[in-house]
Amino acid sequence: MAKKKLTQAEMPVADHAFYGLVWAGTVLTERVDRALTKAHDLPVSWFEVMLWLASSPDPVPASVLGNSTMLSRSQVSRVVDALQGRGLVTRTPSPRDARSIEVALTPEGHQLFEEADATRRACLAPVFTDLLDDTDLAALSTVWHKLKANKDAQ
User: Fold this and answer.
1) In 10 A of CB 58, how many CB atoms?
2) Tens-digit pLDDT profile for residues 113-132
3) CA 64 to CA 41: how far, in whole Å?
4) pTM for the complete prediction?
5) Which domains does the chain have, with CATH numbers?
6) Rg (CA), the chain
7) What sequence ranges are listed for the domain HTH marR-type (predicted)?
8) Distance between CA atoms of 8 and 72, rounded to whole angstroms?
9) How many CB atoms lie within 10 A of CB 101?
């Protein structure tokens, strides 16, 4: 007897919502990663670190990058090493804490980030931002804030 596939209508809404979240994150991240790598030789993990750096007017302590990104501290360290090797970031001792290092985009890093961000936006437009209206985007933003606010809940 052939096994029947569970349809969306039969799946509990919470399960379908979670599956959709995982699906969207995986598919969209892979799509952006391919586009950034092809156009700029820039993996999405590097772009994520650059996004946080570009969002800050001041150099960012390496520990803050580790807490802000979806990467582990060791991954952040490897990404920063790679970005520094390409001349896209600088590392400087923190003026506030001698044990801490701060990271900032170089002018070349800012330029590449702007180009890569345009690539990311163009890549996502037909499958994300062009499909969703402002209400959809606001709802998603609310959901992400709720989930992140409770990320350490047991």
Assistant:
1) 8
2) 999 999 999 999 999 999 99
3) 25
4) 0.83
5) 29-135 (1.10.10.10)
6) 19
7) 1-149
8) 34
9) 17
